[in-house]
Structures are given as structure tokens and as C-alpha cells.
Design brief:
454 residues, alpha+beta, two-stranded antiparallel sheet, 10 strands, 12% strand
Length: 454
């Protein structure tokens, strides 16, 4: 391309200049959708919807799902795509253009004869029913281009049964009957709807709808159980929900039940295990819901009468002989941080907060993969062995550690980073650790300490 200025800055934003004609697929898709919506002629509307469907290239910036604006744009574009497909299908059905509907159904697969593929699906389904031991009758019939199950086959669909129980629970007037129906609905939900078909539009929409109903069932059942003080059944509800719908904070329901039953040690262990599980699976920090439940747990804990020496021995952690820093969970780290803030009001301390992040050979943060898990463990071990016993640290997310360095200097922070690198880097390893360090100090007249970047 000619040596001209293709990028310019206006009011703090960067733009492509008119010197470079750019065709953005997302904008083209949105344009086709808007034209289809405003088209008056039905054939033109169908053509524009079909063009829009075929111009949609899949999820918008799939590698940037953690970026808020990209995730919002991806969700918006996918909603438009779903709307395009549904409206195109309505017009095709009205025109009885079933061949094009078949193409719409199998568009993500490469096949020469789409109609033959659909017939093969129907034929193989009938054969599977026969091999399952059912009588040789016609279970699938076609009426006006649409395939239906015939009355020869009695079906009980788990998703429909779940929705039926939910609807009955919503309309029930007796509180005990309502609870029983909610619990039956919860246990009839078998997990994500067609998990192998998440890329299929109607299946993804149905899965989202059923999961929303399931969440509503669990929450409303928990409200009734809490009101009835039936914490044993509430514990069972939370355990089942967490198993069938993982990484959704249902452990908070179980924690509340355990705390209400006075089983504080079990509730605390469940919290610690859940925090570690969420971190290992998704690199997630404790949610606000879990953290609030943990705080309520601490406020509700009751201990037996003990003498001071016994209490102090339990608090001190006499078995903690590790020579390095104090490794704790994020909520505990948060409590330590807030305590240090208060201590600094008396002055005389120099405290630094350091964030360590695993980066690749190009200096970019690593997001996922088996290598990241291995490097995260090695980084945490290197950090813990380097800092002093009076310093605290926690895992903040996949590939990240937070460190609170007490009574140190900015120069010492640099030395600590060098020592961590010496323990972390092996051989010709290209990956490394990126550091960010902030100084913590108290300003008179301000309620909390200020966090100031160095």
C-alpha cells in the first residue's frame, strides 16, 4: 500500500482514514439485517435475510470474550443472526420452499444433496426405533413439508415434563404443594439441554430458557425451605443444584443450610473447596454472592467456651512451618489488606501491593491451556518461596497472583521481582512474569487508604 497515513486520532479515538477502504463483516451483516427489516417486498426481504445469514461468520472476536464491549457486541450480533434465521424460515414456510429450508438447516455442513441428507436422518431414526425393540410401524410422518411423530409412539419428553412441573408449581396455591412441585421440577432437570448442539440456534435458545426456569425453581424452593426452616432439605437442594448446574454459585445455598444447622466447619470447608474449584476450572474469583454468604457465615459462627491459651493456639496456626509468605484465599487476603489499611493510620509503615501475571514470549498475558496451569503453579511457588513470612499472597485468577509486601521499599520490590524470576525461569523458557506494583499510604482526613500507582 502507498505510504500514507491510514490511521488518525480524533478526540482521543483512533480511526481508519478514507485513504483505506475497509469492509467490516460485522457492519455488513448489520447493514443487510437493517435493509431486510425495512424492505417492503417479501421476496426482497427473504433475499436480504438469506444474504445476512450467509454473511454472519460466527461469534464476533471469539478470542476477546473477556473484553466487555466485545462480549456485548458478540451477543448483539448473535441475536440479530437468530432473528434472521427465524424470519427467513417463516417466509420459506409460507412459500412452501422446503428445499431452501433444508439448506438453512444443514448450511454448516458440506453435502451435495441436502434433501437426501434429511431423508437419511428420518430413515436412520426409524431404524434406531426398530432396533430398540419397538414394533415395525411408521413412527414419523410428513404433512405439508413438516415431519411429526405419529400417535403410534407414546413419548415423554424430559424437557416438556420439566416445564409442566414448573408451570404447575407457579399456579399452585398451597405452599406445601408448591414446594413439592418445585422440588420435583428441580430433580427432573437433567442438566444442559442438548449440550452437543450448542451451535444450533434453536437448541441454544431452548437450553437458555430451560436453565432460566431451573434457576427460578431452585431459588423459589430455597425461599420456601428457608421460611419453613427445613435446612436438611435445603442442603440437599443446594448440593443437587451445584452438581447438575456447576459454576453457578449454588454452593451458597448449601453453605447457608450448613451454617443454619450449626455445621460451621463443614460450611467453611465447602467455601474453601468451592473457591479452589472455581479457580481451577475457570480462573474465577469468588462471586459477590459467595463472598456475602461467607461473611454471614463468619458472623453466625458460635464457638464453645474455651480458655484464652486454647483459642490462641487455634488462631496461631502452629503447624504452618513453611518458610515463605502466607498463602491464603482471596477473601482472607481482602481482610488482611483492609486491616493493613487501618494499621497505616498510625503511620510508620511502607506497604506495597504487587500483581504478578504470567505472560508469553511476546509479553502478552496467557489466557488458557495446560501450559498456563503449570506456569501458574510454578509462579505461585516461586512467589511464596521468595517473599517473607510476614507478607501475604493469594491466587487472583488463572495466571495471576496478588502479593502484599509489608515494611519494605520500592527498591526491595525490584529485588523481590528478580528473585522470583530466578526461581520461575527454567532453561531457555520464553514465558515470564509481568509485575505491577502500587504503593499504599494513608492520608489524614480520608477514611480509607489510597492506592497510588508507582
Amino acid at each position: 500500500l502507498p505510504m500514507v497515513n491510514y490511521i488518525e486520532q480524533r478526540m482521543g479515538f483512533f480511526f481508519w482514514t478514507e485513504e483505506l477502504p475497509v469492509m467490516e463483516d460485522a457492519s455488513e451483516f448489520a447493514r443487510l439485517y437493517a435493509e431486510a427489516e425495512s424492505a417492503a417486498d417479501l421476496d426482497e426481504k427473504l433475499a436480504l435475510y438469506m444474504d445476512a445469514v450467509h454473511s454472519y461468520g460466527g461469534e464476533f472476536l471469539p478470542s476477546q470474550t473477556a473484553v466487555i464491549w466485545a462480549a456485548r457486541e458478540a451477543r448483539h450480533l448473535r441475536e440479530l443472526f437468530c432473528d434472521c434465521v427465524e424470519k427467513a424460515a417463516v417466509i420459506l414456510r409460507m412459500n412452501q420452499d422446503f428445499l431452501q429450508m433444508e439448506e438453512l438447516l444443514f448450511e454448516d455442513r458440506e453435502m451435495e444433496n441436502v434433501h437426501h441428507a434429511l431423508q437419511s436422518v428420518i430413515y436412520n431414526s426409524k431404524k434406531k426405533l426398530e432396533r430398540a425393540g419397538l414394533p415395525k410401524v411408521n413412527y414419523i410422518e410428513q404433512r405439508k413439508g413438516v415431519f411429526f411423530w405419529t400417535e403410534e409412539l407414546s413419548l415423554v419428553e424430559d424437557a416438556s415434563e420439566f416445564e409442566r412441573l414448573y408451570t404447575e408449581a407457579e399456579s399452585a396455591l398451597d405452599i406445601d404443594e408448591k414446594l413439592a412441585l418445585y422440588m420435583d421440577a428441580v430433580h427432573s432437570y437433567g442438566g444442559e439441554f442438548l449440550p452437543s448442539q450448542t451451535a444450533v440456534i434453536w437448541a441454544a435458545r431452548e437450553a437458555r430458557h430451560l436453565r432460566e426456569l431451573f434457576c427460578d425453581c431452585v431459588e423459589k424452593a430455597a425461599v420456601i425451605l428457608r421460611m419453613n426452616q427445613d435446612f436438611f432439605q435445603m442442603e440437599e437442594l443446594g448440593t443437587y443444584a451445584a452438581k447438575i448446574d456447576p459454576l453457578a454459585d449454588w454452593e451458597a445455598v448449601t453453605m447457608e443450610a450448613l451454617a443454619s444447622l450449626g455445621r460451621y466447619d463443614e460450611a467453611r470447608k465447602l467455601y474453601d473447596d468451592t473457591v479452589q474449584y472455581y479457580y481451577n476450572e475457570q480462573g474465577l474469583r469468588p462471586s459477590k454472592k459467595l463472598s456475602e454468604q461467607f461473611e454471614r457465615l463468619g458472623a453466625a459462627m458460635e464457638h464453645q467456651y474455651e480458655v484464652l491459651d486454647v483459642i490462641q493456639a487455634d488462631l496461631s496456626g502452629v503447624n504452618d512451618k513453611f518458610p515463605g509468605g502466607y498463602l491464603c484465599s482471596y477473601p482472607v487476603f481482602q481482610g488482611i489488606y483492609r486491616m493493613v489499611e487501618r494499621m497505616m493510620e498510625r503511620g510508620g509503615q511502607s506497604v506495597y501491593l504487587m500483581l504478578c501475571t504470567v505472560v508469553d514470549g511476546k509479553g502478552n498475558p496467557m489466557r488458557e491451556g495446560a501450559m498456563l496451569e503449570e506456569l501458574s503453579k510454578r509462579m505461585a511457588d516461586a512467589v511464596r518461596r521468595t517473599i517473607r513470612r510476614g507478607d501475604a499472597m493469594c491466587q487472583y485468577g488463572k495466571g495471576q497472583c496478588l502479593v502484599l509486601l509489608v515494611n519494605t521499599t520500592r527498591e526491595n520490590c525490584t529485588l523481590i521481582q528478580k528473585r522470583i524470576n530466578q526461581r520461575f525461569v527454567q532453561g531457555r523458557q520464553r514465558s515470564g512474569i509481568q509485575y505491577y506494583v502500587n504503593s499504599l499510604f494513608w492520608v489524614p482526613g480520608v477514611d480509607t487508604a489510597k492506592l497510588v500507582g508507582e
